[in-house]
């Protein structure tokens, strides 16, 4: 069973992952408003993924005999000046999340809650991927600058990100369910 301190910290992380999803959903809307549908697709997929992260923590707290306490969610930001600014924010946000995961793993070790380590180690690896992906896209956007064909090329590439067919973040799935 997990102690109160780690339980609280894991509840905070459920909130952080849900706020990540909310932030990326806001970015998906921003990109769709610019007709950058590929970038919007990437953000929809990311918003979906963040929900799965939140649920991994949710399930883990319950499995370890803890108590899930959901917190109020905040919309971290709702408007961007450019695609570059949005992806830079996504990159910065993932760096913040990595710091949260590091703090969680340090706390789990201090409290000798070794049963939480496999899940937290999974997240350590996941954050390497998350930071690298958002950082790489931000760098490519910085590279093309104001060049429209370059921007559209990146948009095409991001439109190919596979997307869970049944996810409610997928507009096709929403249509199919009606
Ligand atoms: Fe996440
Ligand atoms: Fe990921």
Provide structural commentary.
The chain is mainly alpha-helical and 178 residues long. It has one domain: Up-down Bundle (Ferritin). 74% of the residues lie in helices and 0% in strands. It starts with a helix and ends with a helix. The mean pLDDT is 96. The protein binds fe (ii) ion (2 copies). The site of one fe (ii) ion has 5 residues, from helix 1 and helix 2. One fe (ii) ion binds at residues 49, 126, 129-130.
- The helical percent reads over 70%
Low-confidence stretches: none
Bound molecules: fe (ii) ion
**CATH T-level topology:** Ferritin
* CATH superfamily label: Ferritin, core subunit, four-helix bundle
What is the overall shape?
A: globular
Overall mean confidence score, pLDDT: 96
SSE diagram, text form:
Blueprint lengths: L3 H30 L3 H27 L19 H28 L6 H28 L3 H12 L11 H7 L1
Helix pairs in contact: 1-2, 1-3, 2-5, 3-4, 4-5
């Amino acid at each position: 069973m997990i102690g109160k301190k780690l339980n609280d910290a894991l509840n905070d992380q459920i909130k952080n992952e849900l706020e990540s999803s909310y932030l990326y959903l806001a970015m998906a809307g921003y990109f769709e408003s610019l007709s950058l549908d590929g970038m919007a697709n990437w953000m929809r997929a990311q918003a979906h993924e963040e929900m799965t992260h939140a649920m991994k923590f949710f399930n883990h707290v319950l499995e370890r005999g803890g108590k899930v306490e959901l917190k109020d969610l905040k919309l971290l930001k709702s408007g961007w000046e450019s695609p570059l600014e949005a992806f830079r924010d996504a990159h910065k946000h993932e760096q913040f999340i990595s710091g949260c995961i590091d703090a969680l793993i340090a706390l789990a070790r201090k409290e000798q809650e070794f049963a939480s380590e496999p899940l937290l180690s999974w997240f350590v690896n996941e954050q390497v991927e998350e930071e690298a992906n958002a950082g790489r896209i931000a760098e490519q956007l910085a590279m093309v600058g104001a060049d429209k064909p370059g921007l559209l090329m990146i948009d095409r590439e991001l439109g190919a990100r596979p997307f869970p067919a049944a996810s409610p973040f997928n507009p096709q799935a929403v249509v199919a369910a009606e």
